[in-house]
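Quiz preparation item.
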């Protein structure tokens, strides 16, 4: 396949493996469950999951049943949990493919059991407990006791019980403590005992690595990909994460334009003097959105501000006369001894690194490097 455009997303697999090892080693009581949902936050779940699997990782989670089926091609003998709600009519395929499903309610489990009556094998479930996120799961004691009774059904395996912190990346731990107390109280209602008990996301994994609790799984998401969930987590100084993704391109055109010249759609920028303008082949169709206007990219080691509105496929930057066609452009990450934090790029746009990664369109080729060699 010909890749004519120089825009690409570089994924450092060595850094990813080291991040997993660091996060997994934070606690000797908990196993790190790799979150590879949403195509590994846009970085490429098949490549990343296969690499982790080949390096001994056996616990994964995705958002949808379709994602789980796709990844079963490369991570056959492992736990793979669907965190979202799966249609109960598809439990047959979950059993056939050894995929674990989230049980969000008694009603869901009742419908799933109806489907299990006609098939052989066991369905592995993780019961979702609502503790304060108010997304999916149950918080009613009566319903939990009824779910516990349904777990007597011989074709259901109570593999796990879990919840999700909603503010673990914040400065204050009060809401975490509230959710933890709710979780412990509701989990204690089950007479059946699951293999896995988990509540920690990336922030919780770092923040509570030395906490005395009965949990044995921690869900590693954004931190696996080299980002701290927040500055509050970073300043705990419990580990040093390595950037995994770098968005890069090259200059395709440079011109000198006179003072008073308008640039871009909506003529939102006008030169204040004679200026050099360079064009870079990346735009909002690639995931670099219009709100990035004004951010400074690194062009051949020079800070160059995005001027004019970001176009669908290209953008323009103000540069010096030294910049020439073919010069390297760094949007975020690390490249050619230059560095721009993805968090800095996200902060400028009043968003988070998660969204930045997930927005990168599939037309941007992913280039994977392992042992400093492109795969």
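Solution:
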């Amino acid at each position: 396949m010909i890749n004519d455009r120089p825009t690409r997303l570089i994924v450092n697999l060595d850094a990813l493996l080291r991040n997993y090892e660091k996060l997994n080693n934070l606690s000797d009581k908990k196993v790190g469950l790799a979150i590879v949902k949403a195509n590994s936050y846009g970085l490429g779940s098949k490549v990343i999951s296969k690499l982790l699997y080949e390096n001994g990782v056996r616990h994964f989670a995705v958002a949808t049943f379709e994602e789980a089926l796709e990844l079963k091609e490369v991570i056959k003998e492992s736990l793979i949990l669907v965190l979202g709600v799966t249609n109960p009519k598809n439990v047959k395929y979950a059993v056939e493919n050894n995929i674990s499903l989230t049980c969000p309610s008694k009603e869901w489990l009742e419908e799933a059991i109806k489907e299990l009556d006609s098939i052989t094998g066991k369905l592995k479930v993780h019961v979702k407990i609502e503790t304060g996120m108010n997304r999916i799961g149950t918080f009613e004691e009566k319903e939990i006791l009824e779910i516990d009774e349904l777990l007597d059904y011989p074709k259901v395996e109570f593999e796990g019980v879990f919840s999700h912190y909603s503010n673990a990346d914040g400065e204050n731990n009060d809401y975490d403590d509230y959710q933890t107390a709710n979780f412990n109280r509701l989990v204690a209602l089950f007479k059946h005992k699951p293999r896995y008990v988990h509540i920690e996301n990336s922030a919780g994994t770092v923040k509570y690595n030395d906490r005395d609790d009965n949990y044995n799984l921690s869900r590693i998401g954004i931190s696996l990909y080299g980002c701290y969930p927040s500055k509050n987590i970073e300043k705990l100084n419990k580990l040093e994460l390595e950037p995994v993704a770098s968005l890069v391109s090259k200059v395709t055109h440079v011109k000198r334009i006179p003072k008073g010249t308008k640039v871009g759609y909506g003529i939102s920028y006008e030169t204040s003097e004679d200026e050099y303008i360079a064009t870079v082949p990346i735009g909002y169709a690639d995931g670099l959105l219009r709100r990035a206007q004004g951010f400074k990219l690194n062009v051949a080691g020079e800070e160059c501000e995005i001027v004019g509105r970001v176009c669908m496929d290209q953008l323009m930057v103000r540069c010096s006369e030294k910049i020439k066609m073919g010069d390297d452009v760094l949007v975020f990450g690390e490249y050619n001894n230059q560095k721009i934090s993805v968090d800095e790029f996200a902060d400028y746009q009043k968003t988070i690194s998660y969204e930045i990664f997930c927005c990168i369109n599939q037309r941007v080729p992913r280039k994977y490097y392992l042992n400093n060699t492109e795969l």
